[in-house]
Amino acid sequence: MRRLTLLLALALAPGCTRDGATDHMQRARDSIFEKRPEEALVEYRKALDELRRDESAQAQVLKARALKGAADVYWLELRKVKEAVSVYKELIAQCPESPEALEARVVLAELLRVHFRDLRGAIDQLTAALARNPPQGAELHYQVAKLYFELQDYQQCVLETRKLTERFATSAFVDDSIFLQAQALHMQAVHLPTSMAEVQRYRQEASRTYADLITRFPDSELAPHAAFEMGKIKAESGDNEKAIETWVQALKNHPDPAMVQDAIARARRRIAATTPEHLDRKAAFSRGPAPTPRKKHRNSVEAVGGSAEEAARDYGD
Questions:
Q1: Cβ neighbours, 10 Å, residue 295
Q2: What is the mean pLDDT of each run of 10 residues along the chain (317 residues)?
Q3: Which of 89, 140, 221, 244 has CA 20 to 30 A from 288's CA?
Q4: Given its phi and psi angles, is residue 275 left (phi above 0), alpha (psi -120 to 50 degrees) or beta?
């Protein structure tokens, strides 16, 4: 009887339970490799049962790994989103300071955003992850800014992008952040102002931010997109001539020249519709000598070296 009691005590000792949990976790990994995810879940749960009464630091490490493993199986192997979310949350609650909990917050944020449209919940998870100063901090901060943009909270988006560019000044996400900031400022011109003066203020600030991106990152793939957006702002402000000039410059590197060409064509039609034939704006209202015919703006064909005749054919002139 004494021997049986001793064996039971040894079996329940912390070292034995951790060894048993380690064995179950190895079998779980083997099951994943062999494409048996349901068996892997059983093994992870057995590992957690072994660790339930062990409060040691080593047990906490194993518990975090087992929970992360089980959550990953639900999500990556079985695509059971609700179950994955539940286990990721269990991991965060039980082992909040573990590296696995940090990873869980990032994955959980994406699941909340994509599958539940819980953008505020996603922001909460990423903000908590950022508080741990993770190595991917710039990327996570950029995701937070994008989530605020999705929520149409453009003011907070601008604040987040500005914080990112200050805190992570050498990050590869700085040009993305500046572009997003300019977009948010431009959207404020649409959704927030109560006066035309305020509309123009937001437009000018957005345009300056796009220009800042082009100046600081001329080789960025976002630079031609920034130039195109600057042209849109000029057109919205009624300055179609400046818009065309800006779009012609954007054509040199823009990945979608047809879209830029279409914008140029529409701006030219707006000018033609509001200007008397053969007159520019100043000449149309002057009392001086007879004006000379107005020179047409270069369109996309002329910008890349085509003749005026080819340009005319391009727009059916």
A1: 8
A2: 44 66 97 98 97 93 98 98 98 97 98 98 98 97 98 97 97 98 95 86 97 97 97 95 95 95 96 71 42 41 44 43
A3: 244
A4: beta
Rounded CA separation 292/286 (Å): 12
Q: Report d(CA 5, CA 33) in Å as an integer.
A: 39
Helices (H) and strands (E) in the chain, counts: 17, 0
Residues 6+ apart with CB under 8 A from 100: 64, 65, 67, 68, 91
- Number of residues that make up the chain: 317
> For residue 205, which amino acid is it?
E
Please, what sign has the CA dihedral across residues 108, 110, 114, 117?
positive
Dist CA 234 CA 214 (whole Å)? 16
- Residue 77 is classified by DSSP as I
